[in-house]
Amino acid sequence: MTNVSYLSTYATSENTVSTPPPTVSNEMSPPHTKKRKNHSEAWNHFIILSEEEQKASCKYCDTKIKYNNGTSSMHAHLSRCLVYKRQRTSSSMTSAEEHVGSLLIVKFDQEAIRRTMVKMFINMEIPFRKVEHESFHEFMSLASPRFQVCSRTTLARDVLKLWDTERMILKNFLSELTKSLSHH
Ligand SMILES: [Zn+2]
Q1: 152-182 vs 110-123: helix axis angle to the nearest 10?
Q2: If you measure from the C-alpha of residue 102 to the centroid of ligand 1, how many angstroms do you get, rounded to a whole number?
Q3: Which of 44, 75, 103, 146 has a 20 to 30 Å separation from 83 between CA atoms?
Q4: Which residue intervals are annotated with compositional bias (Polar residues) in the record (predicted)?
Q5: Which residues contact 150 (CB under 8 A, 6 or more apart)?
Q6: pLDDT of amino acid 90
């Protein structure tokens, strides 16, 4: 059992290393496997836990499956495995982008995050000074390392801006409503 957990831990860390050379998967699956006649591509994504019990675990998410019906259960799992899908998305990028790591897939939009943050502070009734809280900074620097957390003054200004925008929208809406009502 210790062997197995070692294997899967190894496989997991291998896959999360930020700059894996593209040849890694070939090294891990020798092209000539004597034992298996139908060497399906699906085997590359699983670690055999027990040949007798026909148990394997997914390299990406550690889910255990039984493969007694050939590789169909493997394919079935891969089609559902979110970790695998995420990796495939990142590996379909150009090699230059690959080196930056999986974070690159997330589109970074400073303004969108900031607008959402302003709304969050209003909706959750969080005091503006909390934007300067150490814990909030720590959280944001991990969640979105490129996002620049603003000061409480900027946040307050943003809130006013948002309030202005919303007020204009409401004003326009009301004047349209009044117009359409007065026509009847
Ligand atoms: Zn999986």
Answers
A1: 80
A2: 17
A3: 146
A4: 1-28
A5: 114, 131, 158
A6: 66
The confidence score (pLDDT) of residue 108 equals 78
The Å distance, Cα 81 to ligand 1 centre, comes to 4
- Residue boundaries of the structural domains of the chain: 2-101, 110-182
Q: Where is pLDDT greater, at 88 or 167? A: 167
State residue 9 phi and psi, 5-degree precision: -65, -45
Beta carbons within 10 angstroms of residue 158's beta carbon: 20
CA of residue 79 to ligand 1 center, whole Å: 9
- Using CA atoms, how far apart are residues 156 and 110, in angstroms rounded to an integer? 17
Q: Ligand 1 center to residue 77 CA distance, Å?
A: 6
Q: What is the sign of the dihedral through the CA atoms of 151, 152, 155 and 161?
A: negative
How many whole angstroms from 80 Cα to the centroid of ligand 1?
A: 7
Closest C-alpha to 58, from 66, 47, 49: 47
Q: Is the pLDDT of residue 91 over 90?
A: no
